Amino acid sequence: MNSEAQEIVIKPIGTVHSPRVEAIDDNWGSVVSKIQLDPTQFDEQSLWGLLDFSHCEVIYFMHGVSPEQIEKTARHPRNNVNFPKVGIFAQRAKSRPNRIGVSRCRVISVKGLEVTVQSLDAIDGSPVLDIKPYMEEFAPIGDVYQPKWSREIMSQYYQK
Amino acid sequence: MNSEAQEIVIKPIGTVHSPRVEAIDDNWGSVVSKIQLDPTQFDEQSLWGLLDFSHCEVIYFMHGVSPEQIEKTARHPRNNVNFPKVGIFAQRAKSRPNRIGVSRCRVISVKGLEVTVQSLDAIDGSPVLDIKPYMEEFAPIGDVYQPKWSREIMSQYYQK
């Protein structure tokens, strides 16, 4: 496998402006932030119709994580030894390969090239890679289950 | 804004092996595919615990889309004039900036560096950028709504 050949270059479509400047694990529920699209690439037509959706998915780059922090094997979620050691692809830790975040958030308003959203768990200055409208048909199909440790971790994540 | 300076280089973590070699709009429900992690970067510890989740989110690169196909403004979804013209960020068309796909799919099995999944809407050979476990707490919070055209488009997408 030629690793060099397959690298992918991504050009951010915009930037997150958030009151949160540091990564904090909890209480994202009432955070209101703005996504500003890059005016050199886009005009307001690119956002036509987004407000007809209650939620969008934001794909962003976790620029606050340094390459040295990236975990490639297994670790205790939140570095808490009370949680089992699980692989980086079985947890949503930010210190992950490629440092890509994906979250659903509420669309509050769209004005020109600016989208105001609620509960986006991206810190201020995060480069945005994509915005997709949320469609219920894309929700998981069939029974959904997850381990107990993940419930504990998430209990206050979106608390207001 | 210095666009050159902010480009982000992504190194795929693995590859999708799917029976589907062409992008087809519908009937992804029964498609079973395998995600093979790159053995030069990862060992099986990176997937520990993933099978305790019913679903994962796969972030992948839609390599079948050429740069010339990318839409940056508004278009009719599926190029069907019966649907309203909406912005590229208000639809999930593959011909989008950065060509990143994000989908939930069922985790069927994990064996070494290989994850078998059901209903992943990525064609054969798609580079995988990340795998995240699906946690219900990350589902949209509050009322969810979406326009009628999106319901029509999705009606057979995950049909088996």
Would you summarize the structure shown here?
Chain A is mainly beta and 160 residues long.
Written overview of the protein:
- The structure is a homodimer of 160-residue chains.
- The first copy, chain A, is mainly β and 160 residues long.
- Chain A has a domain at 14-66 and 96-136: Elongation Factor Tu (Ef-tu), domain 3.
- Chain A is built from one helix and nine strands, in the order βββββββββα.
- Chain A has a six-stranded antiparallel barrel.
- In chain A, a hairpin with a 2-residue loop joins strand 7 and strand 8 (114-118).
- Chain A starts with 7 loop residues before the first strand and ends in a 6-residue tail after the last helix.
- Mean pLDDT of chain A is 94; it is low at 1-5.
* CATH homologous superfamily heading of the domain at 14-66 and 96-136 in chain A: YaeB-like
Which assembly state applies to the chains in this document? homodimer
CATH topology of the domain at 14-66 and 96-136 in chain A: Elongation Factor Tu (Ef-tu), domain 3
Largest sheet of chain A: 6 strands, antiparallel, barrel
Q: Show the largest interface.
A: A-B, 77 and 77 residues
Q: What global shape of chain A is seen?
A: globular
Poorly predicted runs of 5 or more residues of chain A: 1-5
State the order of secondary-structure elements of chain A, H for helix, E for strand. EEEEEEEEEH
Strand order of the largest sheet of chain A: 2-3-8-7-4-9
